[in-house]
């Protein structure tokens, strides 16, 4: 019992340290939230336009780490499988590769300046950016 | 809980067979289950290991082909050729993805086998990472706007190490899978060997248990039968006190019980036969003696009577010449005459008593001479009871007996010689009255003298019992009371022929039984049983 209590306490204390991943988009996109399957289809290139017809611009985080892994795990993929999808589209000429941005700060900047852009960052980076929309704010970080 | 030995033989056999069949079924079931498990294990190796290795090999081949295409792509300038190469590369990536899907699917349904699967998982993770890196560099290549040959060569050379890592990881993964299969196959083989050993052992065990069970069953049956056989031989040699130990409730136990009952009743029957023969020969002897004594006794009696008459005549003759005799002589003569008459009368009197005894003795030889006729039992018993009571009252007026009668209204009629049965009843009643009279004279006698006469009907005959609350008969005398001339009465009061005669009449004359139930201080009960003819 004591062990269980201390385990719960440990989880409560450590959970916020992992943080959470948020899905963000340019403020002009005609959506306030997005479901997992639509998100996957956007990142796979199957949805190329928002509801109002403006093009979807997928932005990928180049930096390896928990944010990236947690986001693709949320979509049910690994990074390598996601890349296979993009490569195939690019090689067959069906679509373009997503824009790959080195850091989260840069990524926020790119999204806030690009109409129709969608990407993911650690949640704390979303504060103080009126030109972006948070579509999902609670993807748990797994490691 | 019922003991095993108490079950009937058939049940024992069925239980034994059942146990053997159960063991056989268990062994067969085990064999089938084991074989099925082995088959499934081998199937798993065949159906899962080989396809997963094929998938991994295909990925490896596709990755190296892709690498080749990329190198070619880097140096190809013609747009048409580049497009064809790109299409080929897309197909290869598609194929790699498809093979990864296949491998993942197989891995997810394969039962885990450590330590191989932990190795496999970590290698696959490493492959995933390297492959991710390699694709990232490829993307960079395609994405790069400065599409110069130098740039391509630079990037591809940088990805060279990653490519080698991907390839090596895949080879290591294939190797682990091979080891895994080999291990699984070895394990299946070991299992097969172990199962075969267990099945062989179980079969041996089945045989041993079956043999043991059969031996126990046979022992359970034959041992008591052998004991029975030995006991039967003992009986044949004349030992009637043989008793078998009954230790089960099955058919053999029942047989042993019946055997014990048989020997017990044989012993009783033999005892009774001996007594019967003894009494019969004593009866014959008695009758023979009586016959021999009767003639001389007749002479004694007749001459005694004659002597008495002659004394009378002599007295009359002397009276006529009395005056001629001197007075002293006359007186002495008259006294002598009186003594002589007295002697003659005594001889006649005791001679008659002897005659009575002899007549009683002769009745033994007479057999059933009277005529058999149907008798209403209750009325007949009542009549004789009254007669006997009046007879005893005439002799002993002071005796008052409480006579109770318990007559069975169903008693009905019986075929018998009435004089003989009457004699028996009167004998028994006289004995009862005598016994209660003697008892009543003793100090400390509580109740009134009581005699109970009872008739009863059973399936095969009727019985009359006469019970008294007299002194009872000591056990030491039981076997003698039916002997002729045996009596406990003082000399002159009984001849000792009554019960002996009654016994003859009932057993020989009527084919019935005369039995005794007595206890000293409490009373005696004689029961006459007559078959209903």
Describe the structure in your own words:
The complex is a heterodimer of chains A (143) and B (533). Chain A is of the alpha/beta class. Chain A contains 5 helices and 5 strands; from the N terminus they run H-E-H-E-H-H-E-H-E-E. Chain A has helices at 2-18, 36-44, 66-74, 79-92, 104-113, and strands at 20-26, 57-61, 99-101, 117-122, 132-140. The relative contact order of chain A is 0.27. Mean pLDDT of chain A is 81; it is low at 10-17. In chain B, the strands form 2 sheets. A 5-stranded mixed β-sheet of chain B has the order 2-4-5-7-6, with helices on one face. Chain B has a two-stranded antiparallel sheet with strand order 1-3. In chain B, a hairpin with a 3-residue loop joins strand 4 (450-457) and strand 5 (461-468). Chain B is built from 9 helices and 7 strands; from the N terminus they run H-H-H-H-H-H-E-H-E-E-H-E-E-H-E-E. The longest helix of chain B has 88 residues, at 149-236. Chain B is of the alpha+beta class. In chain B, helix 1 (9-75) packs antiparallel against helix 2. Classes of the chains: A alpha/beta (143), B alpha+beta (533). Chain A binds chain B through residues 62, 78-81, 83-88, 90-93, 97, 100, and chain B through 86-87, 89-90, 93-94, 96-97, 100, 128-129, 131-132, 135-136, 138-139, 142-143.
Keywords:
heterodimer, A: about 140 residues, alpha/beta, globular, B: alpha+beta, five-stranded mixed β-sheet, two-stranded antiparallel sheet, 7 strands
């Amino acid at each position: 019992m004591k062990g269980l209590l201390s385990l719960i306490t440990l989880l409560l204390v450590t959970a916020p340290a992992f943080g959470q991943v948020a899905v963000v988009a340019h403020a002009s996109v005609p959506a306030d939230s997005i479901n997992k399957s639509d998100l996957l289809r956007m990142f796979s290139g199957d949805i190329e336009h928002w509801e109002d017809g403006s093009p979807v611009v997928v932005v990928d985080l180049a930096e390896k780490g928990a944010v990236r892994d947690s986001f693709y795990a949320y979509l049910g993929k690994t990074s390598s499988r996601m890349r296979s999808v993009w490569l195939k589209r690019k090689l067959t000429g069906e679509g373009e590769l997503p824009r790959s941005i080195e850091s989260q700060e840069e990524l926020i900047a790119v999204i806030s300046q690009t109409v129709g852009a969608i990407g993911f960052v650690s949640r704390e980076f979303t504060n103080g950016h009126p030109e972006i929309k948070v579509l999902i704010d609670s993807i748990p970080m797994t490691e | 809980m019922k003991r095993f030995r108490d079950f009937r033989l058939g049940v024992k056999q069925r239980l034994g067979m059942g146990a053997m069949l159960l063991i056989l079924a268990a062994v067969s079931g085990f064999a089938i289950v084991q074989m099925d498990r082995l088959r499934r294990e081998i199937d798993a190796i065949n159906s899962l290991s080989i396809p997963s290795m094929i998938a991994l090999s295909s990925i490896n081949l596709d990755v190296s082909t892709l690498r080749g295409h990329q190198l070619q792509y880097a140096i190809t300038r013609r747009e048409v050729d580049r497009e064809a190469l790109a299409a080929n590369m897309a197909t290869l990536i598609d194929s790699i993805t498809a093979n990864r899907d296949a491998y993942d699917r197989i891995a997810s349904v394969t039962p885990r086998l450590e330590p191989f699967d932990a190795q496999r998982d970590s290698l696959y993770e490493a492959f995933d990472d390297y492959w991710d890196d390699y694709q990232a560099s490829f993307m960079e290549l395609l994405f790069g706007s400065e599409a110069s040959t130098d740039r391509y060569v630079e990037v591809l050379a940088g990805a060279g190490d990653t490519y080698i890592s991907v390839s090596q990881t895949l080879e290591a993964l294939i190797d682990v899978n091979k080891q895994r299969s080999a291990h699984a196959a070895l394990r299946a083989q070991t299992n097969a060997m172990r199962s075969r050993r267990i099945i062989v052992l179980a079969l041996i065990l089945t045989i041993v248990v079956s043999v043991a069970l059969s031996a126990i069953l046979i022992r359970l049956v034959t041992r008591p039968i052998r004991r029975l056989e030995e006991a039967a031989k003992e009986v044949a040699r004349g030992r009637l006190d043989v008793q078998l130990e009954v230790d089960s409730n099955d058919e053999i136990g029942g047989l042993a019980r019946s055997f014990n009952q048989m020997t017990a009743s044989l012993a009783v029957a033999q005892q009774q036969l001996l007594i019967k023969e003894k009494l019969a020969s004593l009866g014959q002897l008695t009758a023979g003696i009586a016959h021999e004594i009767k003639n001389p006794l007749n002479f004694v009696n007749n001459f005694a009577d004659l002597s008495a008459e002659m004394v009378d005549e002599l007295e009359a003759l002397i009276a006529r010449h009395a005056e001629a005799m001197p007075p002293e002589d006359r007186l002495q003569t008259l006294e002598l005459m009186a003594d002589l008459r007295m002697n003659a009368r005594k001889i006649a009197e005791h001679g008659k008593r002897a005659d009575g005894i002899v007549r009683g003795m002769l009745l033994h030889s007479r057999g059933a001479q009277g005529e058999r006729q149907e008798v209403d039992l209750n009325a007949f018993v009542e009549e004789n009871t009254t007669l006997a009571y009046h007879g005893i009252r005439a002799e002993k007026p002071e005796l008052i007996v409480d006579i109770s009668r318990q007559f069975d209204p169903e008693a009905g009629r019986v075929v018998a010689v009435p004089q003989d049965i009457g004699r028996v009843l009167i004998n028994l009643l006289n004995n009862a009255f005598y016994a209660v009279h003697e008892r009543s004279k003793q100090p400390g006698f509580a109740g009134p003298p009581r005699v109970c006469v009872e008739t009863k009907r059973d399936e095969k005959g009727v019985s009359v019992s006469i019970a008294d609350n007299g002194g009872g008969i000591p056990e030491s005398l039981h076997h003698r009371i039916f002997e002729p001339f045996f009596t406990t009465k003082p000399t002159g009061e009984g001849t000792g022929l009554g019960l002996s005669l009654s016994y003859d009449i009932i057993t020989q004359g009527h084919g019935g039984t005369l039995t005794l139930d007595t206890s000293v201080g409490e009373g005696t009960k004689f029961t006459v049983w007559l078959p209903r003819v």
